[in-house]
Amino acid sequence: MDTLAGMRPDAVKIWVDDFGGSVNKMDSAVYKAIITEAHQRKLRVFAHLYYAADAGRLVANGLDVIAHSIRDTVISDALVQQIKAAGVMYIPTLSLDEFAFIYAEEPAWINDPFFKASLEPGVYEMITSPEYREKLRQTPAYAKNIKGFEIALQNVKRLADAGVIIVLGTDSGAQPIRAQGFSEHRSWNCSSVPVSLPYRRSPPVHNMPQKLCRYPIALAAWLPVKRPTC
């Protein structure tokens, strides 16, 4: 942690997920130590997670930001209040969850020029091919990914309604199918869900946001809320 802090990062991100049972999840003793050591160096801690139970334990141990949606179950009122009381921010990365299955269908935006322009060469032809669509439908996680996305939508709405700070994040660009640029605009419209962006002055302010700028932002294409006039 001393070496990491010497690089002047804004935050530390940890992975607390078994990736559908394919890898071992980080032991709680390890992430407790990381959170403690990071906070001693005035670094905030983000956690990649999937399960509600892990979210509760991480928040109880001082986590600052939940990175990625809770997708295994609709979160309880108690967990909503725990997250809010701790001042934990939430980054749902909904486009990541949608991209996990959506190309098996034919989304309305698949031929949008802006979407097509955001892709690397050859990706559009791949994701629109019948073979690729069928391959997605046959993946073991296909139904789970659809259900996880539906749960993610409910959870971000519950947290936003409770007053938890929702922060824009997409994980775009990590894979060619996660269209960089388009992913952000997929979420960037008017909706009744307020989303925040970290604000940074120049030179950069380290150790995560000293201040937050609040913007209304689009989850209107996904969330079951009335879309206001922009």
Percent in strands = 5-15%
| N-to-C span | 45 Å
Please work out how many helical segments DSSP would assign.
Answer: 10
CATH fold-level topology? TIM Barrel
Mean of residue pLDDT values:
82
Short characterization:
The chain is 38% helix and 13% strand. It is an alpha/beta fold.
Q: What would you say this structure looks like, in words?
A:
This protein has 230 residues and is α/β, with parallel strands linked by helices. It has a single domain, classed as Alpha-Beta Barrel (TIM Barrel), CATH 3.20.20. 38% of the residues lie in helices and 13% in strands. The chain contains ten helices and seven strands. The strands form two sheets. Strands 1-2-3-4 form a four-stranded parallel β-sheet. The protein starts with a helix and ends in a 14-residue tail after the last strand. The model is unreliable at 197-230 (pLDDT under 50).
List its traits.
230 residues; alpha/beta; 4-stranded parallel sheet; 10 helices
Question: How are the secondary structure elements laid out?
Answer:
Elements: H1 2-6, E1 11-16, H2 28-40, E2 44-49, H3 52-60, E3 65-67, H4 77-85, E4 89-91, H5 94-99, H6 113-118, H7 123-127, H8 130-138, H9 142-162, E5 166-167, H10 182-186, E6 194-198, E7 212-216
Parallel strand pairs: 1-2, 2-3, 3-4, 5-6
Antiparallel strand pairs: 6-7
